[in-house]
Write a structure and sequence with these properties.
The complex is a heterodimer. Chain A is of the alpha/beta class. In chain A, about 50% of the residues lie in helices and about 10% in strands. Chain A has helices at about 5-10, 15-25, 30-50, 65-80, 95-105, 115-125, 140-150, 175-180, 185-200, 215-225, 230-235, 240-245, 245-255, 270-275, 290-295, 335-345, 350-360, 380-385, 400-410, 415-430; strands at about 55-60, 85-90, 110-115, 160-165, 170, 285, 305, 320, 325-330, 360-365, 385-390. Chain A has a six-stranded mixed beta sheet with strand order 2-1-3-9-4-10, with helices on both faces. In chain A, strands 6-5-7 form a three-stranded antiparallel beta sheet. Chain A has a two-stranded parallel sheet with strand order 8-11. In chain A, helix 2 (about 15-25) packs across helix 3 (about 30-50). Chain A starts with a helix and ends with a helix. By secondary structure, chain B is an all-alpha fold. In chain B, about 75% of the residues lie in helices and about 0% in strands. The relative contact order of chain B is 0.14. Classes of the chains: A alpha/beta, B mainly alpha. At the A-B interface, helix 1, helix 5, helix 6, helix 19 and helix 20 of A face helix 1 and helix 11 of B.
């Protein structure tokens, strides 16, 4: 056994570190002392880690745009609860990361997710806490709780809806005024406005279709209004097809390409936000979540939002709105009370109001209203209840619909595209 | 015979254990999951070969295989020709030889993902500017947004990044060729091309084998390049197998199905590598 250390010391030369280590090794008494010291340091270190903070929680959330707002809310919470420390964890492609973490059984304590297919799958897998008995659940709006329940089996509540978004068309108020344009209320008016802008050498939309997910914004507005009642239920029962119900959706989407800038597939979300902020286009087909990053680029931009007018009868037009953030937690977290405390904290009216004031979203908490003039044109949709959920939240994610549409928009072959949608749906469902 | 010092066991066994636990065991687990319908979390059932059968009917997987092979073959050819040329240049009597060697090796040391994002920026903003000022239509738009040309962008990044390593290998190969052979050839009246064809190339055959096998294997597994440049788009035009496995398995929630895909891919890569080694080793000449 003496051979090994000798090989080690002989290989590593005779520098001062080696000399010291060799010295410690050779003197048997020194070896004992050093070992005891190391063990003591480890024990003290461990204890320090355990006693320093009573509770450390991880808050995993998926919105890049909301990181600073949550940071400030976490600061407030930690002031009120000095022995709980929360670390916000946000990564790009959060849902993919979450899935890979779930595969390793590394589940975050508290989560803020989008109310979509991934949330439904995670809920079905029995990972999330059941909130049915939570008193604070009743402070949220029923409509949004129902949207979440529709995403998974059964009608329990595996999360608390926190905020709702709106799938809109953003527009530059100053530029609209210059040309004397009004907010279009029907599809024909929408095209007319775009034509007028083109005639005046302006760019109607800045399209960012290099990022496939941004195509879903106009797609969702079109699909929600045009795909008819109960499409998802009927498609799941094989009683209908994409081919029979999505023709107009595809044609109208393709029509919008005529009104984009020169290189539609060359630019992505970040470039689009900047370009619209710098006044390069009159309108920008994005949801209210993009307002913050745009204003960060150019705080002086005078922008507004309106619902995409898909129908030619203004009264029938629906605004697509879904649960932007659903708060939930790990069923088996080490710190259930602390985690629940944080969720309750976020749901307090004062904090929910703070969040939506900063993020331009709408609150799912009762009696918390979005008053910002930027989104005032959307209010009537919420008041009359002309709201529809996001169609793509119910498409199985294995279909990769955004990339399929991206491919379609390159050649415009509607028939082939709809057939592909159907075959991919069938393929994925049979797996 | 001297008993092997236990030191050697102490050196190899820990490494073997680590390798087994973190590399082989997960691979075996993956193969196990490919026979289930596991979505990465929650409960699962055994489904036998259903995943494999579904794969055979999956047009998207088929397209991904075609693209991956197309990309790998083109990149391997370009990288090896380029590296060999550079190595020949670096092996001759030129000034600042060592500086050049360092310069050509630097791209290989950079993280592909980071470089990829820079290339993304170049293709989005700088190349279109240049294209517009020279009036070249094709280059006036971001080629990464063009369904037919996006893969060329990925090839350019791959070639730029990997050539350094292959150049190094070829350079060491060239240095094993003894100078006397060239002198004799010159006396016999052989030109530069003849010298290359009859002396250099046969003698560097082992290095040629290694380079081709390594490049091909590396390019078949391309992921970072595509993630940084196009994320598989536009549509599914640049979706490689590894990207499909990642997208479908994690984003799409079809963990077990894509694991079956991964197993098939493993077998394909093994087959290709074995085939290459068999064919190329026959060419190796002993001097």
């Amino acid at each position: 056994m003496e051979a090994v250390p000798d090989i080690f010391f002989n290989t590593y030369g005779s520098g001062s570190t080696t000399k010291i280590l060799r010295g410690i090794y050779l003197m048997k008494s020194l070896r004992l002392v050093t070992t005891i010291l190391l063990v003591l340091v480890m024990l003290v270190g461990l204890n320090a880690a355990v006693f320093a903070q009573e509770v450390e929680l991880e808050f995993f959330q998926n919105k890049r745009e909301a990181v600073e707002t949550f940071d400030r809310l976490i600061e407030r919470f930690e002031e009120e609860n000095p022995n709980i420390s929360i670390e916000q964890n946000h990564v790009p492609d959060a849902e993919t990361v979450l899935r890979s973490r779930l595969a390793r059984n590394n589940i975050p304590d508290i989560m803020g997710l989008g109310g979509n297919f991934t949330y439904g799958q995670v809920a079905d897998a029995g990972i999330l806490k059941n909130f049915n008995e939570a008193a604070y659940l009743n402070n949220t709006q029923t409509a949004y709780r129902k949207m979440l329940q529709d995403l998974h089996e059964g009608s329990s509540n595996y999360g608390v809806p926190f905020t709702a978004n709106a799938n809109t068309v953003l527009y530059n108020r100053d530029k609209f005024e210059e040309l004397g344009l009004e907010i279009p209320e029907t599809w024909d008016e929408f095209i007319e406005v775009s034509e007028t802008i083109k005639e005046n050498d302006g760019t109607p939309f800045y399209l960012t279709f290099k990022d496939a997910w941004t195509i879903m914004v106009p797609w969702n507005s079109l699909a929600a209004n045009l795909h008819g009642e109960n499409f998802i239920e009927e498609r799941t029962e094989n009683e209908t097809t994409f081919k029979s119900r999505y023709e107009e959706v595809s044609e109208k989407l393709y029509q919008l390409l005529d009104y984009g800038q020169d290189d539609i597939f060359g630019f992505g979300y970040d470039q689009g936000n900047q370009a619209f902020a710098n006044g390069e286009s009159f309108m920008y087909i994005q949801g209210v979540w993009a307002i913050n990053p745009i204003l960060e680029s150019n705080p002086d931009l005078n922008l507004g939002a309106f619902a995409m007018p898909v129908m030619n009868n203004a009264d029938e037009n629906m605004l697509v709105s879904g649960v932007d953030t659903v708060l939930t937690m790990n069923k088996n977290t080490d710190h259930p009370e602390a985690s629940e405390k944080f969720i309750q904290f976020l749901l307090e009216e004062e904090n929910a109001q703070f969040y939506i004031d900063e993020q331009m979203t709408f609150s799912a908490v009762e009696n918390v209203f979005q008053e910002d003039p930027t989104v005032v044109d959307l209010k009537e949709y919420f008041e009359t209840g002309n709201i529809a959920p996001f169609p793509d939240h119910y498409y199985p994610s294995g279909m990769q619909v955004p990339n399929l549409i991206q491919g379609f928009l390159h050649d415009g072959n509607v028939e082939e595209f709809l057939e592909k949608l159907d075959s991919e749906w069938n393929k994925v469902q049979s797996r | 015979m001297k008993k092997t010092s236990s030191a050697f066991y102490w050196m190899t066994i820990p490494a073997f254990v680590l390798f087994f636990v973190f590399h082989t065991l997960p691979a075996l687990q993956g193969i196990f999951y490919s026979f289930t319908d596991y979505i990465g979390f929650g409960d699962y059932n055994f489904v036998g070969f259903k995943n494999y059968l579904n794969l055979l009917n999956d047009g998207r997987a088929f397209d991904a295989y075609i693209f991956t092979f197309k990309f790998a073959i083109v990149s391997t050819i370009i990288v090896n020709i380029l590296s060999l040329l550079i190595a020949l240049g670096l092996n001759s009597k030129i000034k600042l030889k060592n500086t050049f060697r360092a310069v050509y090796f630097v791209p290989y040391m950079l993280s592909i993902l980071v470089v990829g994002y820079i290339f993304n920026h170049i293709f989005t903003f700088i190349v279109p500017e240049i294209g517009r000022s020279f009036g070249i239509d094709i280059l006036s738009k971001n080629i990464l947004g063009n369904m037919d040309l996006a893969w060329i962008g990925v090839v350019i990044l791959a070639v730029w990044n990997s050539s350094g390593f292959n150049t190094l290998l070829y350079l060491s190969g060239l240095q094993t060729v003894p100078d006397e052979l060239y002198e004799v050839a010159k006396i016999d009246g052989a030109g530069k091309w003849d010298q290359f064809k009859h002396i250099t190339f046969p003698l560097i055959a082992p290095f040629f084998t290694i380079n081709i096998v390594i490049s091909m294997r590396g390019f078949l597994m391309v992921f970072d390049h595509i993630m940084a440049l196009t994320e598989g788009g536009p549509g599914q035009a640049t979706e490689s197998i590894t990207l499909l496995i990642y997208n479908g398995g994690f984003m799409g929630g079809e963990f077990a199905y894509q694991t079956a895909n991964a197993v098939i891919f493993l077998l394909v890569v093994l087959a290709v590598s074995f085939f290459q080694i068999k064919v190329l080793q026959k060419r190796e000449v002993d001097y």
